[in-house]
Specification:
With about 210 residues, this protein is α+β, with helices and mostly antiparallel strands. Helix content is about 20%, strand content about 30%. The strands form four sheets. A six-stranded mixed β-sheet has the order 3-6-7-8-9-10, with helices on both faces. Strands 1-2 form a two-stranded antiparallel ribbon. A hairpin with a 5-residue loop joins β8 and β9 (about 140-150). The longest helix is centred in the first third of the chain and has 18 residues, at about 40-60. The protein is globular.
């Protein structure tokens, strides 16, 4: 619990000092502390696959992979925790912050889908250092990919199917959706049940 900070706005500095000692995950949103819901098993497996896929491609380079323990500043008093990302800055080893994030990834859950693709997307697009945003679906092999074009404007595409590939050219990162959905079992889609026609009624006229 926040104790003296309950129901009160706090500064980013106060938040970072407080959150360092917490077991649960929290974000700072417009100066207010918000507890993060725990990830489901499906979501956790996808995040693990993403890290295992992307980390070897950044090793030894100028940019480093970070996990959901690292914060991204999206406003003067807002600090988000993407599920993973790539930071091309050089923060101190004890820093909780990404200094110059180039990629952020959010693995969507049914309960956070609408919020992530609206509020968080707008916040991420406003970051000058960011080149790529990926929203990964947990219900089927599908990724909504956003990238900043040469003119500075954001573009997007839906990448669908296990054999589809994502290329993040500025980071020299490339992978297939099969890589990030490895060992993931998707729930079967519910079948549409068409009711059988009622038994035909007698055409005889009652007397």
């Amino acid at each position: 619990m926040l104790n003296e900070h309950d129901n009160a706005k706090i500064t980013p500095e106060e938040f970072l000092a407080w959150v360092a000692g917490q077991e649960e995950r929290h974000e700072l949103v417009n100066g207010e502390v918000v507890a993060m819901a725990g990830a489901g098993r499906q979501q956790d497996r996808i995040v693990t696959n993403l890290i295992a896929t992307i980390r070897p491609q950044t090793r030894g380079g100028p940019c480093q992979t970070f996990t959901s323990d690292t914060y991204v500043t999206t406003g003067p008093s807002t600090k988000r925790m993407p599920d993973m990302g790539v930071d091309c800055g050089n923060p101190p080893d004890d820093s909780l912050m990404a200094e110059s994030p180039s990629l952020v990834v959010e693995v969507l859950s049914p309960t956070t889908f609408s919020f992530d693709v609206s509020v968080k997307l707008a916040e991420y697009k406003a970051l000058p250092s960011l080149d790529y945003i990926l929203f990964v679906n947990t219900e089927r092999p599908s990724v909504q990919s956003f990238w900043r074009g040469p003119n500075g404007l954001w573009q997007d595409a839906l990448v669908d199917g296990l054999d589809a590939r994502i290329k993040l050219e500025k980071l020299n990162i490339s992978f297939s959706l099969r890589d990030i959905y490895d060992e993931i079992k998707f729930r079967p889609k519910p079948k549409l049940v068409i009711p059988e026609d009622d038994e035909p009624t007698s055409s005889s006229t009652p007397t």
